[in-house]
Structures are given as structure tokens and as C-alpha cells.
Amino acid sequence: MEGTRELKTKRLILRRYRMEDAKELYEKFGSDPEMYRYSGWNPYASVQMAEETVREFIGNYEHTYFYGWAVEYQGELIGTIGAYDYYTEKDQIETGYSIARNFWGNGFATEALTCVLRYLTEQEGIHTVTAWCASENTGSMKAMLKAGMKLVKAEKNGLEAEGNTYDKLYFAYHAE
Q1: How many domains does the chain have?
Q2: What single-letter DSSP state applies at residue 175?
Q3: CA end-to-end span of the chain, whole Å?
Q4: Does 1 fall in a domain?
Q5: How are beta strands 7-8 and 12-15 bridged, if at all?
Q6: What's the rounded Cα separation, in Å, for the pair 80 and 14?
Q7: Residue 75 burial (CB count, 10 A)
Q8: How far, rounded to the nearest angstrom, does the alpha carbon of residue 174 sit from its chain's CA centroid?
């Protein structure tokens, strides 16, 4: 396994985080409630938290099982994508992504996710990549389906985020 290495798609560059990304991550993700509405997870809630998160990501690059990318479009940071919690016994890893709100609806999540799914299964040799989303998060659900993931389970009221309860949808992508 090689871990996080730079990946390119037709429009995007998926690269390692840099400390200077922290301020932009706070501005585009941490300070916009829509960015964590369905997850409740906000590692960029303040500039200091964003700096700590980026520092942690950078420190984890020494581990070959760590996958964390900043997503760039035309030189601008527009998103994040990563894969976490690799289970050797299942040969499975979970992925998650986020695209800044002013870039929604352009297919960037699908493009980045498709690239990462292929990298993890074809290059890194991981058999199964999983992901989840709230049932109301139709944008995320569409991105996963378009990237080739399949809905494998729905958990009624399985997700609580920001004081709301949602059905939690689980998706999987398997190496061929």
C-alpha cells in the first residue's frame, strides 16, 4: 500500500493537505452549517480546529493506510475526500467526501469519488469501499450511485446530526 499520493482526473487534482489549507477549510466548510448538516462532524469549526485537523492529516501521511486528499479545481481548494478505518480482516475501508457549497451540482463529488474508488481497489488492492449518508442528503446519494457504489442497507432513524434524526443509508463498492 502506498497511502495518499496525488491523483488527477479530467478536472481535479487530489493532493495532500498543506498547512495553508486550514484557513480556507474553516471558511468554506467549518463556518457553513450546510457542510456538516447531515454528519454532525465539523473538524473545521474554528481556524484552530482546522489547523489541528490539517496537522493531524499531515502527520498521518507517514502511514501507508492513511488516505486524505484536498480536492482542487483550477487551483482552488473546493473539497475534501478521504478513506478511513481500514479493516484488514474484511479488506474494507470507509470513504467520505465534501464539496464546498458553491461548487455543488457540477459533478465534482462523483468525479473525485470515482477516482478514489478506483485507486483504492485497483492500485491499493482493497476489496471493499463503504460509505454512508443521510437519506435526505440526495446530492451525496446521487454521487455515490453515479460513482458505481450500490445501496446495501438502510437503517431507520440510524443517524443523529445537529439535533435531527435521519435514516442512514449504507453503500458499498467492490473490486472486480
Answers
A1: 1
A2: -
A3: 18
A4: no
A5: antiparallel
A6: 8
A7: 6
A8: 17
E strands within 37-163? 67-73, 76-87, 92-99, 128-134, 150-161
Tens digits of residue pLDDT in 86-130: 999 999 999 999 999 999 999 999 999 999 999 999 999 999 999
Q: Is 31 inside any structural domain?
A: yes
Distance CA 50, CA 101 (A): 18
Does 2 reside within a domain?
A: no
**pTM of the complete model:** 0.94
Nearest to 72 by CA among 123, 124, 115, 43: 115
CATH number of 33's domain: 3.40.630.30
How far apart CA 106 and CA 52 sit, in angstroms, is 30
Alpha helices per DSSP H over the chain: 21-25, 47-60, 108-118, 138-146
